[in-house]
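Hi R.,

As promised on Friday, here is the backbone we talked about, encoded as structure tokens. Could you run it through your design pipeline when you get a chance and send me back a sequence?
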């Protein structure tokens, strides 16, 4: 039996752009962090699983979805981290995250940095209202368009990165700071990255940003 297309809806700002909404509406298995449940219901979709400590979910919905709730009290993890750990226990191979940014900056940064932790566990990506975050752990060819903005992030200053197809080419370059690799551009319809080890986080800005009505 094929693995379902799994999406985690985090409790940031509910997406408005075409790309994350398309990901959400095409999913056949939606995991909701507890505080995001009402936003998903307001959009006309229902969660398959609700994960968290349930401090942000009303009693009404706790009763309505009691058979779908995975309550985890652990306060050392955010609800998104709890959801990702649950996905690991289910041996999923692919997870897409939406709704993880746009409110508190500390939550936004923490949610994005989780991609480093789970890149080796399954195929993971995060769609925001501005673009796509994608962790890279080996030589990779990624699609793009001329002029599309690309940013690269590493929390390991020893990683060496080489590129082909970017405006500012990299040749076994290191990133001594988290912001050292931002604001590059794609030159054609794809670009190639090679890394020496570890995980490189790639941000690809959407070509067109359109609010969905």
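Update: got your reply. Pasting your designed sequence below so it's all in one thread:
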């Amino acid at each position: 039996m094929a693995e379902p297309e799994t999406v985690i809806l985090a409790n940031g700002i509910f997406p408005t752009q075409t790309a994350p909404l398309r990901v959400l509406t095409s999913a056949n298995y939606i995991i909701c962090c507890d505080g995001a449940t009402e936003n998903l219901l307001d959009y006309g979709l229902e969660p398959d699983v609700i994960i968290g400590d349930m401090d942000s979910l009303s009693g009404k919905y706790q009763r309505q979805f009691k058979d779908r709730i995975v309550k985890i009290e652990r306060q050392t993890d955010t609800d998104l981290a709890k959801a990702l750990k649950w996905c690991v226990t289910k041996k999923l191979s692919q997870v897409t995250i939406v709704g993880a940014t746009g409110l508190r900056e500390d939550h936004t940064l923490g949610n994005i940095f989780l991609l480093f932790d789970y890149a080796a566990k399954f195929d993971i990506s995060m769609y925001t209202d501005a673009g796509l975050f994608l962790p890279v752990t080996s030589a990779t060819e990624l699609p793009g368009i001329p002029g599309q903005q690309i940013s690269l992030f590493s929390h390991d200053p020893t990683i060496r990165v080489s590129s082909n197809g970017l405006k500012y080419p990299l040749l076994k370059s290191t990133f001594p700071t988290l912001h050292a690799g931002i604001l590059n551009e794609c030159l054609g319809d794809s670009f190639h990255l090679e890394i020496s080890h570890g995980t490189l986080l790639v941000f690809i800005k959407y070509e067109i940003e359109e609010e969905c009505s």
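One thing I noticed while checking it: The CA atoms of residues 53 and 74 lie 8 Å apart.

Thanks again,
M.
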